[in-house]
Amino acid sequence: MADSGPTTLDDLLRAGRQMFAAAGVGDPALDARLLVEHFTGTTRADAITAPQRRVEREFADRVWAAFERRRNGEPVHRIIGRRGFHGLDLLVSPATLEPRPDTETLVDSMLPFVREVVRRHSRCRILDLGTGTGAIALALLSQVPEATAMGVDRSEGALATAVQNAGDLGLAGRFTPLCSDWFENVSGRWDVIVSNPPYIRSDGIAGLARDVRDFEPPSALDGGPDGLDAYRQIARRAPEFIDPDGRIGVEIGFDQKQDVTAIFLAAGLEASGSAKDLGGNDRVLIFASASPGKAGT
């Protein structure tokens, strides 16, 4: 707890580092800095050039409350309520999965095709299944001004978060939310379908790190008994909704490449590409319609 005396930036940063180190937090210095900066409205430069800057009690109390939450396992970006993703600053809510760098691999993998569709047709229609914060769709829209996207989620809370993010980023005019359980309320055909679905085995959730297990929405994690339920649902109906020249990109767990590929091939789709994340793990699979005459990648 904070004492009753004057508090400086250096006091708070040092106390946070010590608290988090004792609690076994992975990066005590970074987490302390992020929380202090957010709740005091200061910058890293302030901490370097003015470490003895006084922090008013109101703001110091907010920092201490955030420190306690982090010590109890809550992820720092959930405490802050925002997370960077592919150069975007996104709102994170209790209804959404916290976007992570691994998912940027899906954005990077699909961008060349999105741009190719725009080159051919002057537009690209993107369907983001299980949109959550809107991270994947909004990252693609931010890079390709001619593209439009529909973000699908069965959680109204998640959709509200995605809509706010779209508005904050100036992308609301090209982003449409839809409450739907996968394809249930979707219509039309799409040039690109993307998804980061839940893919953790039900019996594996209890063994996840506390900051994931206890703070991420369970529906965004639980992929059923073998972790593959969502892929089966997506693959089963994707041929109805993907343009003959379109592409479907999905994020996968590190050990799911063979199983997910088999599911999509059995649904009549063709493997079109794959990508590994920065850790060298299989992370993205891309599929195409098996209909004749589809364009190359």
| Beta-strand percent range | 15-25%
The ordered H/E elements are: EHHHEHHEEHEHEHEEHHEHEE
Biggest beta-sheet profile: 7 strands, mixed
Residue windows where pLDDT falls under 50 for at least 5 positions:
292-297
The tally of domains stands at: 2
Rounded to an integer in angstroms, the radius of gyration calculated over CA atoms is 21 Å
Shape: elongated
* CATH structural fold name of the largest domain: Rossmann fold
Key attributes of the depicted protein:
297 residues; alpha/beta; Helicase, Ruva Protein, domain 3; Rossmann fold; 7-stranded mixed sheet; two-stranded antiparallel ribbon; 11 strands; EC 2.1.1.297; peptide chain release factor N(5)-glutamine methyltransferase activity; nucleic acid binding
Helix-strand blueprint:
Blueprint lengths: L6 E2 H15 L4 H13 L3 H6 L4 E2 L1 H15 L4 H5 L1 E4 L2 E4 L9 H21 L2 E6 L5 H9 L3 E7 L2 H13 L6 E5 L10 E6 L14 H4 L15 H13 E10 L5 H10 L2 E8 L5 E8 L8
Parallel strand pairs: 5-6, 5-8, 6-7, 8-9
Antiparallel strand pairs: 1-2, 3-4, 9-11, 10-11
In short:
The chain is of the alpha/beta class. 42% of the residues lie in helices and 21% in strands. The chain folds into 2 domains: 74 residues, Orthogonal Bundle (Helicase, Ruva Protein, domain 3); 207 residues, Vaccinia Virus protein VP39 (Rossmann fold, 3-Layer(aba) Sandwich).
